[in-house]
Task: inverse folding
């Protein structure tokens, strides 16, 4: 689990020249571990597509080194490049299936390319159709399939030559949320079953949250942040990361709450509006209720949100804690000692 | 009269058929080469691409009737005669090759680039991409293109009558026009119309059948 599968070292890719010059990747360095699901998130035009396509040399960077399982990809050519590519599966946003071939023959395609013997090919294709649950669609053409089914064919095809790495180029962006979930589950399944390293690029935080172990945030051709997904959710450092986070976590303060101002509360009813963020096992402890009992404060829950990142509970609640300044201060200190992240949003009173 | 018409029909079918097969034999590979050597395709070769493109355009810009007489020495050298159906097949083929190449080009360019890229990502060789992706994916377009070439070959074959090429066109000119045989004129025209119509319908039907998009 700890050996490096893919390594990018100062990879730079520039399109065009002169005035039309666009820096797609600027000095990008990344390390992707064997067996992990590595997500790269960015807006369209951020360079993520270029990045993933450099890994199998569909795009050639101007400078930098890319290594896959210790082998340098960037300098490979011809026969060696083709051999290396057979060990890298790839799936696409628009599936890119051969319209002239049935499901069966689409999955057989990479095996034909690799000149696998017909008998072995047949066994392999049958096993793959079984894996992705499309045995009954064996003789259907892609045009007769739904988006999710097409992507399943894409996945089966990508896995045909037993790759070590699977590259997913916006693989769920053309699918509805329900289908996206089922495709992500399938990816997670193959990751666990075969120890396959998966690199995926997306603009959907949901995808990162659902299956990724590690994430890199790319913005204008640069990696602005990378690390475990849980860390990113708990402490997004870059502007780009926060922007993505808002969509899924509602970390911005609802306006109704910001405007909740009270006229002249009596001193013993004064308090604060606080956002409490938590992650991991703290979510399982009755901290709020201990606080109420120990510090004689009142708590009014204004907003709460709980989510899971790869089975870690994660969330935030916004509460009004009232009961006089001293009590409130003590109560909030208590929360901090419990490992919660606090943010005072406003003074309030009841 | 009927035997004249039957002979002429057979001659036309023979000229068009042979010219179609020969022009496909040269034109299809030429079209493929033209496509894959293009910029941002699977085997970019700018110089060869330019040369091919220019040569094809020159071939396409010659009116058939001019080409027919202009290449008489070549025809004679190649098949020993410049008259008769055999003599007509040479210019027919020569004029259909560049047309065929362009038709193939446009059919192949219709193939979704993403699919080609997927094959590249799998480690396919150029030959494998051509044989397993480009051509099979372009089959419906190729069938329609071939139909188009066949139809214009029929019309060109009529012109070949001018050099004593035989066939329906020849018959229509020599009997229908020069000997005022309205009935022969009418029947040859009718046969030509039926030929073109059925060819087009057949091509359309076949292309639709082969299309799984």
Result:
């Amino acid at each position: 689990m700890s050996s490096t599968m893919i390594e990018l070292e100062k990879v730079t890719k520039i399109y065009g020249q002169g005035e039309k010059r666009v820096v797609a990747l600027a000095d990008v360095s990344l390390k992707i571990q064997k067996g992990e699901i590595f997500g790269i998130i960015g807006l369209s035009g951020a360079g993520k597509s270029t990045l993933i396509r450099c890994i199998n040399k569909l795009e050639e960077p101007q400078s930098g080194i890319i290594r896959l399982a210790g082998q340098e990809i960037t300098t490979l050519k011809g026969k060696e490049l083709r051999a290396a590519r057979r060990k890298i599966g790839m799936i696409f946003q628009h599936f890119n299936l051969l319209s002239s071939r049935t499901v069966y023959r689409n999955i057989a395609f990479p095996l034909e390319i690799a000149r696998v013997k017909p008998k072995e090919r047949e066994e392999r294709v049958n096993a793959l159709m079984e894996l992705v649950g499309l045995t009954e669609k064996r003789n259907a053409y892609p045009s007769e399939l739904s988006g999710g089914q097409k992507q399943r064919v894409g996945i089966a095809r990508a896995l045909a030559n037993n790759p070590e790495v699977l590259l997913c180029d916006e693989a769920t962006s053309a699918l509805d949320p329900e289908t996206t979930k089922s495709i992500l589950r399938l990816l997670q399944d193959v990751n666990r079953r075969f120890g396959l390293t998966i690199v995926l690029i997306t603009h959907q935080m949901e995808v990162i949250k659902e299956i990724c172990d590690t994430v890199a945030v790319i913005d204008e051709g640069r990696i602005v942040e990378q690390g475990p997904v849980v860390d990113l959710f708990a402490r997004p450092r870059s502007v780009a990361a926060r922007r993505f986070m808002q969509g899924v976590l509602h970390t911005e303060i609802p306006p109704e709450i910001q405007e909740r101002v009270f006229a002249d509360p009596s001193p013993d009813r004064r308090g604060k509006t606080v956002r409490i963020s938590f992650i991991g096992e703290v979510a399982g402890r009755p901290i709020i209720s201990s606080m109420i009992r120990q510090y004689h404060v009142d708590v009014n829950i204004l907003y709460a949100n709980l989510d899971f990142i790869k089975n870690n509970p994660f969330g935030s609640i916004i509460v009004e804690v009232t009961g006089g300044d001293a009590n409130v201060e003590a109560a909030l200190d208590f929360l901090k000692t419990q490992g919660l992240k606090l943010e005072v949003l406003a003074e309030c009173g009841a | 009269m009927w035997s004249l018409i039957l002979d002429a029909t057979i001659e036309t079918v023979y000229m068009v058929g042979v010219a179609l097969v020969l022009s496909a034999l040269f034109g299809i590979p030429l079209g493929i080469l033209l496509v894959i050597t293009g910029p941002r395709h699977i085997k970019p070769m700018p110089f060869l691409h330019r040369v091919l493109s220019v040569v094809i355009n020159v071939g396409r810009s010659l009116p058939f009737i001019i080409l027919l007489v202009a290449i008489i020495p070549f025809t004679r050298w190649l098949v020993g005669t410049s008259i008769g159906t055999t003599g007509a097949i040479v210019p027919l083929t020569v004029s259909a090759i560049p047309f065929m190449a362009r038709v193939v080009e446009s059919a192949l360019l219709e193939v979704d680039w993403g699919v080609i890229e997927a094959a590249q990502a799998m480690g396919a060789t150029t030959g494998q991409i051509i044989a397993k992706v480009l051509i099979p994916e372009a089959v419906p377009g190729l069938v329609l293109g071939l139909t188009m070439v066949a139809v214009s070959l029929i019309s060109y074959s009529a012109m070949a009558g001018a050099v004593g090429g035989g066939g329906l066109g020849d018959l229509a000119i020599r009997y229908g026009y020069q000997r005022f045989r309205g009935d022969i004129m009418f029947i040859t025209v009718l046969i030509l119309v039926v030929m073109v119509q059925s060819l087009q319908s057949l091509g359309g039907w076949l292309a639709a059948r082969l299309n799984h998009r």
Remarks:
- Chain A is about 35% helix and 30% strand.
- The two ends of chain A are 54 Å apart (CA to CA).
- Chain A has a mean pLDDT of 86.
